[in-house]
Amino acid sequence: MSAREAVLARIRAATGGDAGDAPERLAARPEGPRPARAGDDPVERFAAEARAAGSTVSGPVPPEDVPAAVAEWLVAENLPARLAASPDPALDRFPWSSRPLLTLERRRAEPEDRVALTPCFAGVAETGTLAMLSGPERPVTLNFLPEAHIALVSTRDLVGAYEDMWARMRAAGDTPRAVNLITGPSRSADIGQELRMGAHGPRKLHIVLVDDGRPGGSDVC
Amino acid sequence: MSFAGPANFRVSAARALADEPLQRELARFSQGFQVRRVEAAGRLPEFEALRDRARDIKNHCLAHLDFYLERFEENCRAAGGEVHWCATAEDARQAILAICRRLGAKTMAKGKSMVSEEIGLNEFLAEEGVRAVETDLGEYILQLRGESPSHIVAPAIHVATEQWTEAFRAAHTDRPADRSLSDGSEIMAEARAVLREQFLGADVGLTGANFLIAETGSSVIFTNEGNGDLSQTLPRAHIVIAGIEKVIPTLEDLSVFMRVLPRSATGQELTVYTTLSTGPRRAGDLDGPEEYHVVLLDNGRADMLGGEFQDMLRCIRCAACMNACPVYRQIGGHAYGWVYPGPMGAVLTPGLRGVEEAGHLPNASTFCGKCEEVCPVRIPLPRMMRHWREREFARRLSPAKFRYGLGLWAFFAARPALYRPFASLAARVLGRGRPWKRLPLAGGWTGTRDFPASEGRSFMSLWRAGRRR
After folding, report:
1. What domains are defined for chain A?
2. How many other β-carbons are positioned within 10 Å of the β-carbon of residue B117?
3. Residue A60: is the preceding peptide bond cis (ω within 30°)?
4. Is there a contact between B59 and B68 (Cβ–Cβ < 8 Å)?
5. Which of B86, B114, B89, B103 lies closest to B204, judged by CA?
6. Chain B residues close to A185, C-beta within 8 Å
7. How far is A168 from chain B (nearest CA, A)?
8. Which of A209, B265, B375, B443 is positioned for an S-S bond with A59, CB 3.0–4.6 A?
9. Which value does ipTM take for this structure?
10. Which structural domain, as residue segments, surrounds residue B433?
11. Which residues on chain B are in Cβ contact (under 8 Å) with A36?
12. How far apart are CA A83 and CA A104, in angstroms?
């Protein structure tokens, strides 16, 4: 008997091995309780929760002002204007040439990169969480290697609850290889039981909210 | 990274109580996590309803564990991952070694994984010529100090800042000897730089899993540092090791645990990095591992199904029970002698290693009930500790003096006509009013505290007097 069969046999000896309503439940995907806060104004709730988790948030700014918002933050933080930026075409709509000093290198991150710039699949208001889906145009290393991460979130991509994000993700296609849900900058309290930012991932996470109109809404209403 | 073994509990606990540096760290630890948990729960009115839901999801999964594991396997394979079923710790060690050998791997970057501690992976791989480097800051300092974790979420809470400095100076000899390294920020910056090289140079990466999702075939980790993500993104292969009880049905179910686990563990609304991994790098991807393996470990878990300890398999390893436990907070985690300390360890360790070896652990409880009160999946920890005590007694594993003493008491207690005159005589001999400082045959009990004295007349005599009136 293989280890697989041995383990399954031991489980079935104890449980009886009856699938019961499990196949239906797996297909129906019932939800648990949703926090009431997920129904709050998504921009306000998202920004408040993101700040509480140690992120900095600017905006909402109109799309044409995004390069300025990015450049200003970099200057304020004394960070270089050369960015490892996501190849994702979602970044193409911003007028980067309006800030000629900003250099966007569209690629994965390398260890020497200091700042990453990425769009986001969604922002979840209930905890101020960014949802990043991996893909050929969305390398995962950008989220973790550089010491600072600037994330652009469209107000249209703000959702209230985690469940809303999963629904959008399923609608977009197959489960991505990596789903990175990011809530604030990297941290650790392992040394002397004191919380410090920047353990292995970014020390700073700056979110620029892009004003694209009503969050989570459609053009109709 | 050796464990003292649960059989040494009494000696280890006594040593921990006398260990002044440890007591200083425990005193500081004592409040933080608990306060933050209460505050986080207070910010979420739905928290109690979510705990009920979390419990129910786990119960459902355990009742149909074979079904969900097979669905997980199917979907993991469909995404290009490989599933390795392992009945024992040795099976798991060999499965991981086989992957390393096939890839010619010499180094492994590790995220924090209690199951890897359970199977003694690092020592085993070292003997086979594979160097495993812990990259979680807490686990890294333990590896440098040759210690085991003392807490399942914050593994190095017993290590003081100056001990970090000392260990870093001894280990990182290629750095200037006169560098400043006393402040926590300096220590963290050095760890970040040193471990970067490990992520970038490692041949394989290994992480644990907080959950496995049957619907998608994904593994999920909840972390704060980002080392788990770097460990699984940069090397050629990502190996996940997880107990079979970790599987849950869907992403909707994961949402429930995203709401209860971090709040129960550290009081965060959500961990900084909550990462779902599904299979290896895909066509066109610019990064990510070329191989993705999930090592599913039984190692005694299936034997806990269907019996009085099944509820323990709901555990999501948040550590709220040990943060709340008055015993853990006095002696720390090392005294428990193995991977899992505190109340959850006192129930799980006898289950996985046998009551012969670990029977002391369920006795180290005041039954105050705090652990059950804070458990996000409502595991009846005190009740299960009582079950272990009963088994230990029934199998004559407890000390003879204890068993005879209890037998003698039971003999009298079952015979009221003998018990009452004897109890009233004893009360008179020992005296009323002042606490009893020493009791015959119970020196262990009165050695560290007084026994409350008899208040005067017994309940039975008051009852009879009342009825006559």
Report:
1. 41-210 (3.40.50.10420)
2. 22
3. yes
4. no
5. B103
6. 272
7. 12
8. A209
9. 0.96
10. 415-468
11. 45-46
12. 5
